[in-house]
Amino acid sequence: MISIAIHGGAGVINRASMSTENERAYRIDLERALDAGYAVLEKGGASLDAVVAAVRILEDSPLFNAGKGAVFNHAGINELDASIMDGATQKAGAVAGVRHVKNPIELARMVMEHSPHVLLSGEGAEEFALEQGVTLVPGSYFYTERRWKQLEDAQQAEKTQRVASAADEDIGFFSTVGAVARDRNGNLAAATSTGGMTNKRWGRIGDSPIIGAGTYADNATCAVSATGSGEYFMRAVVAHEICARVRLSGVTAAKAAHDVVHGTLKDIGGDGGVVVVDKGGAITLEFNTEGMFRGARDSGGRREVAIY
Ligand code: ASP
User: Fold this and answer.
1) pTM of the entire structure?
2) Residue of the nearest CA to atom 4 in ligand 1?
3) Cβ-contact 240, 268 below 8 angstroms
4) In whole angstroms, how far apart are CA 277 and each of 51, 53, 149, 178, 248?
5) Does the annotation mark 192 as catalytic?
6) What is the pLDDT of residues 48-82, one digit of tens each?
């Protein structure tokens, strides 16, 4: 069985405030990403290539909080995080707080494949990007009006001590992107990319570039990519926790994902979701929020994209 699952973030996705046109745009980009990843697998390609192909498309779409369209930090700058893990070798690569890398997921993969390290951050990561010949762009490339308005609103809310409402935030906070896949050889891979959280400061880094929290893959169990309130995903080490449960207690990945997302994570106050593919190729899409932009496709004929 070959399978791929993707997400474009989870959270308060207000059905009433989402126009039909908007919804269509999200679905189109999710389908494009899903099908691009699946096409790699169908041709006999590796799960690592499939997850990168899918995430790249979501990074290039201005709709999602990753690459183009990423949220702004407190200083009005886009700082991007990404990570990738190879379930066959347990190798992993990640970048945090990069400001000029067009596709952070590609840089994360280069960290995994062309450096002795797992996680590079900030200027050092960009120096590495330059050496590797990764596409660099001026900071203005990441600008979108919608994300700028979200920053203004968040800062206004902070000043007046008003909690930013779901309507203000639109479909904002958690629209990180990610993908998990199983290829023909039974190899699993997971990838996640994000702009983090609107109005973040002090060099804040979330779960997305943290191996074990936002991303994990192990051929013996499953591959996981997460989205949601990063601080809680880090504390619950969500992605690794799901794989560990499968390995240690023999539950299915579906049960492990359900219990972690609705139990462990929710119990400490964490909101969000995960996409999971297990060693046999079974897909699980689990979230404890109102919605999660998501998609799943496998060689058993499943092909779906959903939001709520
Ligand atoms: N998990 C991401 C973070 O905390 C946010 C998201 O999922 O959109 O940085």
Assistant:
1) 0.96
2) 230
3) no
4) 12, 17, 36, 12, 17
5) no
6) 999 999 999 999 999 999 999 999 999 999 999 99
